[in-house]
Amino acid sequence: MTTQLAAGAAGEDTAYDADVFVVGLGPTGLTMAHLLAARGLTVTVLEREPESYGMARAVYTDDECLRILQHAGVADEVHADMIVDLPVQWVKADGSLLAQFREPKRPHGWPVSNFFYQPFLENVLERRLAERPEVTVRRGRSVTRFVQDACGVTVTHVASRGAGYGKADLSLDAATPEHIRARYLVACDGGRSTVRTSLGIDMAGTRFPQRWLVIDLQANEGTQPFAHLPYFDFVCDPQLPTVSCPQPDRRHRFEFMLKDSDTTEDFEERATADRLLSRYVEVTDVTITRQLVYTFNALVADRWRSDRVFLAGDAAHMTPQFIGQGMNAGIRDAENLSWKLADVVLRGASDTLLDTYESERKPHAQAMIRLSVLNKDIVSTGRPAAIRARDWSIGAATRVPGLRSYLGEAKFKPKPRYRPGTYAGMPRRWRGMRGVEGTLMPQIPLRSMAGRPVRLDDELGQGWAVLGVGVDPRTVLGAPVWDSLAPVWSRVFPMGGRPSGRGSRGPTPGGLVDVDASSDALARWLRLAGADIGSVIVLRPDRHVFSVTAPGHHADAETALAQLFSSPSKRDARCLLGVSP
Ligand SMILES: Cc1cc2nc3c(=O)[nH]c(=O)nc-3n(C[C@H](O)[C@H](O)[C@H](O)COP(=O)(O)OP(=O)(O)OC[C@H]3O[C@@H](n4cnc5c(N)ncnc54)[C@H](O)[C@@H]3O)c2cc1C
To answer: Parallel, antiparallel, or unpaired: how do β-strands 465-469 and 545-549 relate?
Structure first.
């Protein structure tokens, strides 16, 4: 049975079952629930499938997303199961190298290249969610209706035997409705989002006709069938474009592009898999765990917000898998939206802060989609002239030093840097690459006063943070806005920059995170930021830079923050107080 969702107006009750409902327990919903709870909100998650999927779709994640999972408190555990620092290469049909990407630097404190097995990742996230008292997970419950009003969203959900993740028709029990109410609803309900559809929100972009066969393999006991395939390969073979991807736990994925004349039925036959796989491995050494033909979409929802309802993950954007960024985009959404919802609910931030979720995230998601489509074209082109042009230009680029690092270090990847005028923060003071307002601060290696290595984000916690460069920021700030923000105060010194000797002795400031850099990375970043000794840097909870101010100008940051935090609308204030508007 399928059920349409209905969105509409209702009464304005201010009794809530949770601050936020999350619909869907894929990677976006899992991360969203963790981060909302970590930032102080109560959450109910509704998932229509009684069991987790148990199969891999995503295989790759990057350093920025591991940093987000660090904020969710799960990064160390999920990372322990990943293959890390794996070079990614583009090779010709004969195996000769066209280009290779490998990035040993760790600007965000994690490897840039990480390959994982999705069921491991999801199992850890779901198991650890059960440890959070702020979160209630309801599996086997399908959202069939929601109604929003000035103060909240009322959801109807019913028992569901699920749809086997698309394998069967959805089976619901309409006789088991429950009605619950929250301040906000976040739809993480996937590419076919029924929440998005019921809101009448369209998706713009391209649905590609090309089909790819995805085969997941596990090595049989006592065999080493993948030892000769150590790296991630895009095989640019015009006869059979192929992807070869190492995975943890003796697993491997192959993807093969179908020609127009190939049939999906034939490519989902075991005999076809054996024929294709035998180009790379001994088929008797492997077990096929999954064999499925996919098409892919490059689509973005026209709107990501309808008052108190937000779209996130595949519900908001669908990224072709050719740069492994679809799930990662959903993880980025969770980071961006969760702190904003927490600040509106708990710290009286203005409702307009929630509009910056879409204005910040959408251009980045679109840029990732464009890059993914470009890579698809590079890998799968079959026209001889285009192949010659591709091979020549990649070959030339790898011989020019600046271009070589552009390719080899993936500098073409969209940066975590918001466009001027779109983000919550003070305007960037310089054009071009200088100026850090609206960018993600790197997670620079630090050492504590006790001389131990520490991670910046672990030291700063979940909320706002204020860094004084060589100065206790509390001594130069004092506006009332800090009372509601309750930031972590920190004094940072570039490597070797801490004053020493008797003359430098003063009272040890209490309640301060006091750290030195343990590399030159902080000094370099401070130069980029234009921040000298005495400067103050305000970091948002997602560690994007809100402001950088020099001595004498700190009140500018306080004024900008006060504008964001002292003006919840009358309606929101009344909802938060539990008084119907
Ligand atoms: C072959 C392939 C390879 C990929 N490789 C990568 C990669 O390497 N890296 C990467 O980042 N991305 C990759 N992706 C993309 C990635 O898998 C998706 O972007 C990601 O899974 C989307 O997660 P999500 O949580 O937004 O949605 P989903 O995983 O689709 O989860 C949505 C959930 O919502 C539930 N739901 C739906 N409707 C309701 C309802 N009414 N009530 C309750 N629950 C509901 C569903 O049951 C489901 O569990 C790949 C995709 C494919 C197909």
So the answer is: unpaired
Which of 137, 314, 371 for a ligand 1 pocket mutation test, highest count of atoms within 8 Å of Cβ? 314
DSSP state of 425: S
* pTM attached to this predicted model: 0.95
Atom number, ligand 1, closest to the C-alpha of residue 165: 47
Identify the sign of the CA torsion 516, 521, 525, 528.
positive
CB 515 within 8 A of CB 446: yes
Q: What is the CA angle 447-451-454, rounded to 5?
A: 35
Q: Is 320 in the pocket of ligand 1 (CB under 6 A)?
A: no
Task: Convert the pLDDT of each residue in 359-414 to its tens digit.
Answer: 999 999 999 999 999 988 888 887 778 888 887 777 777 777 666 676 666 778 89
CB atoms within 10 A of CB 425: 25
Mutate to test the pocket of ligand 1, among 22, 44, 45, 48 (most ligand atoms within 8 A of CB): 48
* Cβ-contact 83, 229 below 8 angstroms: no
What's the 233 CA to ligand 1 centre distance in angstroms? 24
**Do 543 and 457 touch, CB atoms closer than 8 A?**
yes
Give the three-state DSSP class for 524: helix
How many whole angstroms from 300 Cα to the centroid of ligand 1?
A: 15
b/e map 212-243, b = 16+ CB within 10 Å: bbbbbbbbeeeeebbeeeebbbbbbbeeebbb
Q: How many residues does the chain have?
A: 581
From 62, 68, 158, 189, give the residue whose CB has the most ligand 1 atoms within 8 Å, as the site to mutate. Answer: 189
pLDDT of residue 506: 65
State the closest ligand 1 atom to the C-alpha of 212, by its place in the atom list counted from 1: 1
18-83+110-204+302-374: CATH topology is FAD/NAD(P)-binding domain (3.50.50)
- 475 close to 551: Cβ distance less than 8 angstroms: no
**pLDDT over 50 at 521, yes or no:** yes
Residue 26 Cα to ligand 1 midpoint, Å, equals 5
Q: Report the C-alpha dihedral over residues 390, 391, 392, 393, rounded to 10 degrees.
A: 50
- The predicted structure's pLDDT at residue 2: 39
Task: Say if residue 431's pLDDT is above 60.
Answer: yes
In this structure, what token pair is assigned to residue 522? 């902080």
Structure tokens at 465: 């943070």
Which residues make Cβ contacts (< 8 Å) with residue 131, sequence separation at least 6?
A: none
CATH class label, 445-565: alpha beta
Enumerate residues 6+ apart whose C-beta is below 8 A from 491: 467, 468, 470, 471, 472, 473, 509, 512, 513, 514, 515
Angle between helices 326-347 and 27-38 (to 10 degrees): 30
Residues 21, 126: Cα–Cα separation, whole Å: 16
324 Cβ below 6 A of ligand 1 = yes
Taking the domains of the chain in order of start, what are their residue ranges? 18-83+110-204+302-374, 445-565
Residues 438-448: pLDDT tens digits?
999 999 999 98
**DSSP helix/strand/coil, 290:** strand
